[in-house]
Design a protein that fits this description.
Helix content: 10-25%
Shape: globular
Low-confidence stretches: none
Largest sheet: 4 strands, mixed
CATH architecture of the largest domain: 3-Layer(aba) Sandwich
CATH topology of the largest domain: Rossmann fold
Strand content: 35-45%
Oligomer: single chain
Mean pLDDT: 92
CATH superfamily of the largest domain: Vaccinia Virus protein VP39
Distance between the termini: 20 Å
Number of strands: 8
Length: 157
């Protein structure tokens, strides 16, 4: 199933929901996160689980997402440029694809991700009716620390 995670319209409640690859970081406003988490909860059967990951502020500000990358893949030159806005807690990644040879101009993609405090996300999950929430470091599945790159949230309906 593929839908807007803020407005899930399931025909029946499900047991697991997985939202991967930091998709929720692309929701740039707290109200959108709240809508998404309420939507996930409504779509779950009692006892079901929502599992999702989020990049941390450290990852977006100082981790590998903050580095510029330049490389060639399948006849395309790619340049990835990152910028961090500390006040808004938003990372902007600009990807420039340049076809090698005479095949045309550049293609530019811009991705924006917002970092959210894990305590706030946990509180919102509980407010939305989840009964139990675990937050773990995706790298070792242990306790999250100040240099954790990605968090995994496991929330029970």
């Amino acid at each position: 199933m593929q839908e807007d995670m803020r407005y899930l319209q399931t025909s029946c409640q499900v047991t697991p929901i997985n939202c991967a690859t930091d998709a929720m970081n692309h929701l740039l406003y707290e109200a959108e996160i709240e809508m998404c988490l309420a939507s996930l909860r409504a779509a779950l059967r009692p006892g079901g689980y929502a599992v999702f990951d989020m990049n941390t502020a450290w990852q977006l500000r100082e981790g590998s997402d903050a580095e510029s990358w330049e490389f060639d893949v399948d006849g395309q030159h790619m340049l990835w440029l990152s910028a961090w806005d500390e006040k808004k807690m938003i990372s902007t990644l600009t990807i420039i694809f340049t076809a090698m040879g005479d095949s045309g101009g550049d293609i530019v993609e811009v991705h924006r991700e917002r970092a959210y405090d894990m305590t706030w996300v946990r509180e919102v999950l509980l407010k939305m009716g989840f009964s139990h929430v675990e937050v773990i470091d995706a790298a070792g599945l242990g306790k999250a620390g100040n240099r954790t790159r990605r968090l995994i949230f496991v929330a029970r309906a």
